[in-house]
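Usage

Read records sequentially. Each one opens with the input sequence:
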Amino acid sequence: MSEQFRIRRAVPQDRPELSATLNQADYVFYHLDWSSPLEWLGKQPFWLVEDASGIRAALALIEEPAGIAWLRIYGCRRGIFPYEHWPALLEKCLAHFNRDNMPTVAALGLKEWLIPLLEDCGFQYHQSIVTLYRKLEGEEPPFIIPSSIFVRPMEEGDLPEVAAIDQQSFEPIWQNSLPQIEISYQRARYATVAEVDGQIVGFQISTSNLFSIHLARLAVHPLFMRRHIGYALVADLIERCKRDQWWELTLNTQDDNHASLSLYQKIGFQRSDQSFSVWLYQKNQQ
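and closes with the structure output:
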């Protein structure tokens, strides 16, 4: 790091300048997150490089939930190339963690320019995320939900049970903590749970944009797999979307999650040409 640059931890007071810098940046990466990027200010590791003119680059690698640290932000001031400060900032962030008990460090390959940086610093390809979509226009027979499954709107009191199901249903890098579930519930357009004999056994959380609904989270308790719980939740969501005259329903899933892909395709989803990669840091590569 050149003497003309200073590297330091980001603090909440950096928010106005950092927001302006990243909004004008040529190269900026934001993780797909329930939290907006700058909401991570105040948590560590979150490092900046600055010079006499202000912030040059920023990188955040926040651990949430415990044991999983996603690359949340990486961006450079306009006119600065991303490889210039990436190694030093990544090194600072990684040094925050105990080397003998390091969390899984992961990143989404949402930007083509980011992937060579990840590869050069010890990240390895893990899997790909694919996008599926379903048009909601036109007449079709209503879905038949098994009478043993009751789908209802999610309530705030359900969230601890929802978080517990979430953590049992996904591999660690995709699990959400209770605080993340609470944020997703607050920002959802539709959030429902499925019950069997009064027990919550699955849930879905969906968001919206101008014309479409995005199924952001679908989980079924492992003990209730293959009992049409996922089908019931998605079918109910489709009916709600059609009732409210949304045009399209989209979702993302792992390309190696064959059970989910089969369910979605059976219920009328098609695979789009959009996908992105997932990368995991291998500390023994450094």
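Summary fields computed downstream for this record:
- The radius of gyration is 21 Å.
- The domain at 131-275 is CATH 3.40.630.30 (Aminopeptidase).
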